[in-house]
Write a structure and sequence with these properties.
Blueprint lengths: L6 H9 L3 H22 L4 H15 L1
Helix pairs in contact: 1-2, 2-3
Length: about 60
């Protein structure tokens, strides 16, 4: 699911309700999310970060 689409374009699409765009954003940041989760050391860290990211996209 690689894309050359800009992050800004994906965010605008996600804000308009395109779930595929939101999935692409999460996929793009997945390595960073997983790395940060390992330092948080609690079971639901990844889920919490994904939820935070979804809310951040909606508020952008």
């Amino acid at each position: 699911m690689q894309t050359n689409e800009s992050l800004e374009s994906l965010i605008l699409k996600a804000k308009s309700g395109e779930r595929n765009a939101l999935s692409q954003i999460i996929e793009r940041f997945n390595p960073v999310l997983k790395k940060y989760c390992s330092s948080l050391e609690y079971e639901d860290a990844y889920n919490d970060l994904v939820i935070w990211m979804i809310r951040a996209v909606k508020q952008y």
